[in-house]
Amino acid sequence: MSGEVDRFQHGAALAMLLGDWSAGDGPLYRKLADAVARAVDDGSLVAGERLPAERELSRVLAVSRATVVAAYEDLRGRGVVDRRQGSGTRVNGRRRIPRSDGRVRGGQGTAIVQRLIDGPGRLISLGCAADAGVPEVAEALRAVADHDITELLRDAGYHPRGLPALREAVAHHYTTQGLPTSPEQVLVTTGAHQALVLLAEVYLRGASAVAVEVPSWAPCLDIFRQHGVRLVPVGLDDEGVDVHALAEALTGTTPALLYVMPTFHNPTGRLMSAARRRQVAELAARHGVAVVEDHAYAGHSLTVDETALPAPLAAYAPESGEVLTVESLKGIWAGLRVGWVRGPAGIIERCARRKAMADLGSPLIEQAVAARLVPRLAELSRARCVVQRRQLAELEHLLRQRLPEWTWTTPDGGSSLWVRLPGGHSADVYAQLALRHGVEVVPGSTMDPTGQHDGYFRIPFVRPLEELAELVSRLASAWTELVRHGPHEDLPLRPVV
């Protein structure tokens, strides 16, 4: 049987697909059966697909095995699945293949993206680590309306490479950081996510592997998975990606790309040292591997003075190295969907052609706003970090007070804590109980395919202080239920005759 129809044998993958399946009234086994049936009806589960074994799914969903058995029997009675001894439980191959309904599918990270589309509802979602926009965005917008709009309207409006003023501002931004850059080396994108998509299209045609840090952010990994490549995991140490493990990975295979987050890594918040950046750049160049450095959280310093931050990894690369630097204005406001990629002019041109085919260029008014903000990035980041340090301190205080057995390392930067559950508890199981207490947890299994971080999950702290208190209260209630009572017992009522 192909991997396509066996992709949900592991309960964690199916749990992510089902999302908040336990919400609402009624017995759990019926709600579980309904959620699986919906996934089949909308095409998320395909004909012939094997579902997890009863014991495996009950473990991950934190319910009794009898609940899963009852749900599977309910599905069999509806004709949704077939159950055969030795073959397991599979989606009925005779069911009509539905048309796509446009829902986001793919790897485990796509459930996080789908939550952005659906909206959080009653949940506090830990899938998103973005704060409200800064007031300076409004100031820049007014300045564009007062001073720039007339000149912009004289333009035809198509700039696939990006508004020249913004490309110049980004080039100056990197030059002042010790990475000399010209506007020809900059492509403006609709957020950093599009930059990664374009780079994947350029580098992964016919490729077999991408080397990635583990853990790493699941939606980014899914961009690579969609090209059918194998992810080669490389672990971290206190200075960032483990250079010895990286050397071993690059010696054993020749990946098309190495994907790293050197400045406040997501989800650990670690800062890669300058010495480590040089080692990584030189090692990748020696093996002929291009590096994509993602600076999604570059402006989120918590324990390090912004002026003491190392230059981008590209600044340490030898002439033979190929490093692409991806960044955005997410730290200013995620709603300002402006990002960019900086790299060799030839690669930037190839990415620009693909962007032109996708959207003919990002909206110019947003880029004009960004052009006014990029020169102020350091100033705006310092102001925002003052607020984020208070938020981090409050979250750590609440966790020590309510959940003293949980452990974490205070991050160098970023917007989240990377928390480890004690006693070998699975974050996949805890995530299911947390859902029933109104919190969507993204477990470590989605960020590390090796299984080494199954007991971890990420808690973003960039939210109002009163919401942090409610969040920790819900997390503590879910933890108490897991420790005291374990999986939920939920059996269908059967008459006794």
From TrEMBL:
CDD domains: AAT_like, WHTH_GntR. SUPFAM superfamilies: PLP-dependent transferases, Winged helix' DNA-binding domain. Transmembrane segments: none annotated. It comes from the Bacteria. Keywords: Aminotransferase, DNA-binding, Pyridoxal phosphate, Transcription, Transcription regulation, Transferase. GO terms for molecular function: DNA binding; DNA-binding transcription factor activity; pyridoxal phosphate binding; transaminase activity. Pfam families: Aminotran_1_2, GntR. Residues 26-94 form the HTH gntR-type domain. InterPro entries: Aminotransferase_I/II_large, HTH_trans_reg/aminotransferase, PyrdxlP-dep_Trfase, PyrdxlP-dep_Trfase_major, PyrdxlP-dep_Trfase_small, Tscrpt_reg_HTH_GntR, WH-like_DNA-bd_sf, WH_DNA-bd_sf. The keyword Nucleotide-binding does not apply. Residues 83-106 are annotated as: Disordered. In the C-terminal section; belongs to the class-I pyridoxal-phosphate-dependent aminotransferase family. This is Transcriptional regulator with HTH domain and aminotransferase domain. It comes from Saccharomonospora cyanea NA-134. The lineage of its organism: Bacteria, Bacillati, Actinomycetota, Actinomycetes, Pseudonocardiales.
